[in-house]
Protein: N-acetyl-gamma-glutamyl-phosphate reductase
Amino acid sequence: MIKTAIVGATGYTGSELVRLLYNHPDVEIQMITSESRKGEPFSAVHPHFEGLVDHVLQPASAVLETELDMVFLALPHGVSMDYVKGYQSAKFNVVDLSGDFRLSSPEVYEAWYKKDHTHPKGFEDAVYGLPELHSAAIEKSSLVANPGCYPTSAILGLAPLIEAGWVDPAHVIVDSKSGITGAGIKAKPTTHYSNVSDNFKAYGLKSHRHTVEIQEQLSGLRPEPLQVQFTPHLLPVDRGILSTIYTTPIREEVSDQALRKLYEDFYADAPFVRLRKTPPTLKDVRSSNFCDIFTTYDERTNRIITLAAIDNLVKGAAGQAMQNMNLQFGLPETRGFVSLPLNP
Amino acid sequence: MIKTAIVGATGYTGSELVRLLYNHPDVEIQMITSESRKGEPFSAVHPHFEGLVDHVLQPASAVLETELDMVFLALPHGVSMDYVKGYQSAKFNVVDLSGDFRLSSPEVYEAWYKKDHTHPKGFEDAVYGLPELHSAAIEKSSLVANPGCYPTSAILGLAPLIEAGWVDPAHVIVDSKSGITGAGIKAKPTTHYSNVSDNFKAYGLKSHRHTVEIQEQLSGLRPEPLQVQFTPHLLPVDRGILSTIYTTPIREEVSDQALRKLYEDFYADAPFVRLRKTPPTLKDVRSSNFCDIFTTYDERTNRIITLAAIDNLVKGAAGQAMQNMNLQFGLPETRGFVSLPLNP
Amino acid sequence: MIKTAIVGATGYTGSELVRLLYNHPDVEIQMITSESRKGEPFSAVHPHFEGLVDHVLQPASAVLETELDMVFLALPHGVSMDYVKGYQSAKFNVVDLSGDFRLSSPEVYEAWYKKDHTHPKGFEDAVYGLPELHSAAIEKSSLVANPGCYPTSAILGLAPLIEAGWVDPAHVIVDSKSGITGAGIKAKPTTHYSNVSDNFKAYGLKSHRHTVEIQEQLSGLRPEPLQVQFTPHLLPVDRGILSTIYTTPIREEVSDQALRKLYEDFYADAPFVRLRKTPPTLKDVRSSNFCDIFTTYDERTNRIITLAAIDNLVKGAAGQAMQNMNLQFGLPETRGFVSLPLNP
Amino acid sequence: MIKTAIVGATGYTGSELVRLLYNHPDVEIQMITSESRKGEPFSAVHPHFEGLVDHVLQPASAVLETELDMVFLALPHGVSMDYVKGYQSAKFNVVDLSGDFRLSSPEVYEAWYKKDHTHPKGFEDAVYGLPELHSAAIEKSSLVANPGCYPTSAILGLAPLIEAGWVDPAHVIVDSKSGITGAGIKAKPTTHYSNVSDNFKAYGLKSHRHTVEIQEQLSGLRPEPLQVQFTPHLLPVDRGILSTIYTTPIREEVSDQALRKLYEDFYADAPFVRLRKTPPTLKDVRSSNFCDIFTTYDERTNRIITLAAIDNLVKGAAGQAMQNMNLQFGLPETRGFVSLPLNP
Structure:
């Protein structure tokens, strides 16, 4: 059994990790921590787990005093880095669900996150945890930086096109729409029901920090300079991201058949990527670890339109984290995943 | 392995059965049938199952030509009865998710369903499939009539009070609120998004046929005449029923503590009933087979208020059906249930 | 022109008053106040008014330094009372939208609101502003206590039955369901999108302070002791309250026809009460000042079921306040109301 | 008084016309027609108008037998054309809300609508009813083709940029998101609550017929060849369209200030266009005739992002139709508009 701790229990990623790990046959949830609610049962914070997961919440300091194989950090950006720093001599594997080690360097981090980084060395150790691109490195890594939710959908939607050099890397537009859980569990005007429900808006225009995460990962696939226009929007839904991606082919022959072949080859070994024949909806993937992709060529405009849908809390966070853990422990990527798409 | 067929694949109960049975370690989904879509893959009807469950849909007639252990009937009221009739000499167990054999007699059926019954003999064989009340009978039965969604919440909320004789059985009010999936997958004005969303209404006042189902089941617990006022409402949510139940105590000593003790004793062996310390929400049970119950005494008014929450597609339909199948095959009631509450 | 001030601009009732008064031909919005946002334009707080209502927000103290005919207090409970106290020698009329002067005495207030009352004398002056019951008194009053949202629906649904003595006043059940705007504009866990959306719950069981408001008003219609069981629920909708009301007739002859006649006579002069032939939905009244009522008799159970629907921000707050203002100034109740039901 | 008929009462545009015209001081709703519901009161079809608009529905043939000044055609595409043909010698003005006369010729119509056109001559008479571009022509026209909902948002968002020649007309991307009322009142799988709620999808990729409408109108502003990539999406909201528009500047100097100036000048006389300082939300315009626009320049990518929000049933349909009627009758464009943004 993989003795596992979840550090940070009060947010959505913490509770979603519990939901997924609960059914993993090789995992034992040894410890769940929370500074603000320590001493209370986990189910007091997330009452839907009453009778299922009633672990008493521990202070995070208990992690280092316990025999553990695996630690998930479900903490805010800027907080994780200190924990990772403290775990340098620990023997357990770590998946960090924050953005603290996703980028290429402390400098890039500080430019986009507007925050000092306290553990620059972590960038040397951390592997970007998108299994569809980096499974070999993840298998060998004890520190995985779990990707952002928007980047997961954008990168999976674009990787085959970029790597193959089919499209102009200087003109990539990612128009993404996300459910509100991406904004976190904290109550604030942005998450007030009446500001979200029956409503829709764009935000973070030009400056959202997932832009650089997408750019860096895609740039790793191809030498030419690459630039991404990324515009996030807020949907009146709980879960799910749909990215609508516009690219311009720079090769002669493009067709829906050729596109499909390209993606099929690229994702031949990716159990959680589903290539769809029709545009996916958010409910097609809700509660599951799937990324559903549809791509098509518009002859009239010479443009490729790609749609990528995920559940932001699963493939965009906790599910991907469990997938990474599976790789770290030499298990099949799909091990323990029993949550099928919930529709409706 | 229990070789299983699902008859009627196009509706929500059919698709939900597939979702739940998919992870049952002792079940093999041998066959899924649909008259209107036969020849197509199941995932053409429910695209979120693409790559997971692509069984080619069979005509229902194939059921009798196949070696099967278990048949779920996910058919409309008035249609199931003919199938049950046709299965009289079959060797498989049946759980019928329609209302055709839930009531006490063809006469009662015809009075409330306004429809002739073509298989009166079925009423002799059928057992009402609420495991919390009838597990022993279900274990021995090859024909289980799966309860209605509203009745499941109402009966589980009321059974301890009625059986113990604590409340006046002549004055029971059940004010229920249900998500729209209870109205079925068919597109009609009632299910049009803009008629449901940001909206709310009562319907079926005085005449909803679940009234008699609730009354009959509760009457079985206590000799005194019992009468239920049942008012259903339509919520702008996909899944879930919350019943708010008003009863008047007829014994001297009532208190929250005494109530809790009564319910705890009654449900001591019921793994899917959770007695909650605070009022449950629909998302506390969504996608799970739980019935969450909260009950409290109002001294000021001398009234007991009981809240019971279920997912109408799981504990109110497909989950309860799988629970019944487990009993029919001598398995633990909880066998194969891996879908935890999805919140948010 | 009625020179008008709105005290308290940041909440929903403040913004809704502006929306309604904007089109009133006899009203000039002279001043809008806010302590927390003073100096900013009103449209900075409520951007949908950009270009329409850009008044610079004033401190509340400016009210007494300005020539005004009318002041609406859109303030929280416990805050209004001090303003009313300060306005005792003012010449303008006041409608207070808080709960501070709705009840019969400071003692009752303190028992249910768990708060000291700083202006007991106000109870002598204040008139309960439900025009359908108290129009004559409102016309003569310079201090109107605008009713609560739940009480508006409950009292209008029950008043004809109680006044006529048709039902047992000791056994009245009001099962109410409200949209989230009733919980206010402030971000808190209760109003977080993901706690509300696709969800439903009961709250405030046995103890909601609107209980006593309903009881006191109905008790004024009939000498017999009256007791109300009131259970509020939270709907995943922005606006609207539907109350489902259960009463037991204590007279011999009851029928749907007789009920309709009773209500028609009672509301003959009430322009905003619509007696419906079918159960109303929330969208039938959304954005309008209507209270839609449906009532029916269930012979089987000898019970009357009454449904009453309002928009909690209009008839349950700002619209009713404007209706009261019309009465205070000798205008027709309907004067200035141009906002029709918005459906969908 | 303008004696007015609304032809086609059962859909959302018909009911929305009634809502808006009801408060127009110069309009008398003389007649409402419906073939399928004739003989019934309008409020039987749209119960929220009970007591407000109870006109008995007439057959459409009654239009030509009645003295009328104005006829609104709220009919499906392909049906309107025959009515317009039949009205050739009539004296009333017509605003056609269908797509039958929006395009430049029968040939274009037939190519994109896949339908024969029965009244080619109508294209000579019809004026495209976007008042912000064509007010002079609308004033003189007796046949106005009311724009599509998506085109209204897209064209208003793009017109200043295109007319000024600031951006590359060959590379325009319009990523639009619409509420479900755009799909009509008819119950079909697309409009089933559970397919829409908590969900999101793209549809009509590459082929939506609003593409050509946008292209043709923008092409009229500038000689260079213009091509639009238009991708519609379906939001889980009732009303509203937000278009996110990507263009590439082809002039040296672009800045947020310069963009604002360009738009301000272009829309100096447009009372319903609001230039916003922050990205608009759908609720900022809901129930109103506003088009809210936000535009910004991204130096990093050398791209302009423009957001345009409307209520698809008002500025995208019935409100724009009333605005056109005002122009046809020499009234101010804003005449009779009293419905402010409803938020929340």
Observations:
- Residues 2-147+315-328 of chain D form a domain with the Rossmann fold fold (CATH 3.40.50.720).
